[in-house]
Amino acid sequence: MTAAGERFTLKATAPDMRRRRRAERRFRFISQAALILAGAVLVLLIMTIARNSVSAFRQLEIGLDLPLSEETGRASLKEAMAQAAGLSLAEDEGRALLALLGGRAAREAARQRSAALAARPPAPLGEGGKARFWLTASDDADLFLKERPADSAGEETGGRLSPLQKKALARLEAEGRTRFVLARFFFVNADSREPEYAGIRAAFVGSFLTLLITLVISFPIGMLAAIYLESFAPKNRWTDFIELNINNLAAIPSIIFGLLGLRLFLDLWGLPRSTPLVGGMALALMTLPTIIIATRAALAAIPAYIQEAALALGASSMQSVLHHVVPLALPGVMTGAIIGMARALGETAPLLMIGMVAFIAAQPSGFTDPATVLPVQIYLWSDSPERSFSSKASAAILILLLFLMAMNALAVYLRKRYEKRW
After folding, report:
1. What value, to the nearest 5°, has the Cα angle with vertex 178 and ends 177 and 183?
2. Which has the higher per-residue pLDDT, 402 or 75?
């Protein structure tokens, strides 16, 4: 090419190169902006949930001086509350003061009294053989001291508390008879109609039992199906049809699997409703396509010469796959299984369809006991008219997010730690 032709070519391509570089810079800027926006939304979401959940991790307690020489009942609690508030009360006013305590205050006082009497050496007593017992406050009193809402005039409204109850709380607070402690009931109790005693323990145990059933069913079946389809199944229309349907099942809305579980496990098989057994089986149906696809991808990533070398040394096809290919693909298989289980942990729709939306106030002790799971518990608390349940729902969401992040981080670690580059 002549010099004139080269100059013409350079003049013709220079504008194109500049346009390409501008387009590349725009694309890079848009990609970085999208990542920053997604990260900012995620941080905002977590901060909002964390701010709303702080209240659920703190519980108000009221200190009352009660005699150790007699059993603690409602009358004793009324008298102690009136004395602490410096009031001489009628019967209806006594009930109003008693409403500042939780519904199980008498039982809490009885347990603390028994512990004090059984202490060796005996617990120190105050005047008249009394000791100070710290009892859980009601959710209304708890919210009043946590939020202290103000109306347009700047005065405290007190929510559902009466003027007498607000006056009594102010007196108790001034005398150092109120304190905020870690809300232990939130971690050790099951659900309750009383917000101050509601907890996530039963939902946590139910989630564990449900995921255990899901893992036991979906992992071996999904792994064996993937091994057969990838290494042993003949390539024909039938296997193409199966692969197409597996890919379609992975994109089906989760509520469809709930309908399938409702029809198959409850209507036809007659299994007990709202149990970890049925919930785990429904989630296993949903998790199977994810595990199969991830396992097939992990198996396909192993170079063919590894299996060919095993065959050349006299191994059978089954031995070459199970002894050489599968162990090398196991990190990818485990990653897919963990991601599938993380998806199952956050699912609610399939469990709602099989009846795991009931109020469960007892921790399940087996796979056939009535149970609930964390996502359903969050749904129930979010739908409750009690304001205290809103903060508990945010706290449960935060715990669920932490578990999901931990499971996904474990999947990333396994892939980075044990995955080999071919």
Report:
1. 140
2. 402
The residue with greater pLDDT, 121 or 415, is: 415
For each of the domains in the chain, give its residue range(s) and CATH number, in order of start.
Answer: 60-179 (no CATH), 201-418 (1.10.3720.10)
| pLDDT category of residue 2 using cuts at 50, 70 and 90 | low
Q: Give the pTM.
A: 0.83
Best-predicted range by mean pLDDT (3-17, 22-36, 101-115): 22-36
Residues 6+ apart with CB under 8 A from 364: 202, 205, 206, 209, 275, 276, 370, 371
Dist CA 101 CA 135 (whole Å): 7
Sequential DSSP letters for 39-71: HHHHHHHHHHHHHHHGGGGEEEEEEEEEESSS-
CB 375 within 8 A of CB 346: yes
Q: For residue 253, what is the DSSP state?
A: -
Task: Give the pair of three-digit tokens for residue 316.
Answer: 């059978």
Query: How many CA atoms lie within 13 Å of 393's alpha carbon, on the beta-carbon side?
Result: 16
User: Residues 184-222, buried b or exposed e (16+ Cβ, 10 A)?
Assistant: ebbeebbbbebbbbbbbebbbbbbebbbebbbebbbeeb
pLDDT exceeds cutoff 90 at 90: no
Tokens of 186: 């939130």
**CA distance linking residue 135 with residue 84, whole number of Å:** 13
Distance in angstroms (rounded) separating the CA atoms of residues 422 and 408: 24
pLDDT of 401 strictly over 50: yes
Q: What is the dihedral of CA 179, 182, 188, 194, to 10 degrees?
A: 50
**Residue 46 CB: number of other CB atoms within 10 A?**
15
Provide the pairing of β-strand 58-67 with 130-136: antiparallel
Q: Strand locations in 68-166, DSSP E?
A: 130-136
Q: Where are the beta strands (DSSP E) in 36-177?
A: 58-67, 130-136
> Which one is predicted more confidently, 330 or 160?
330
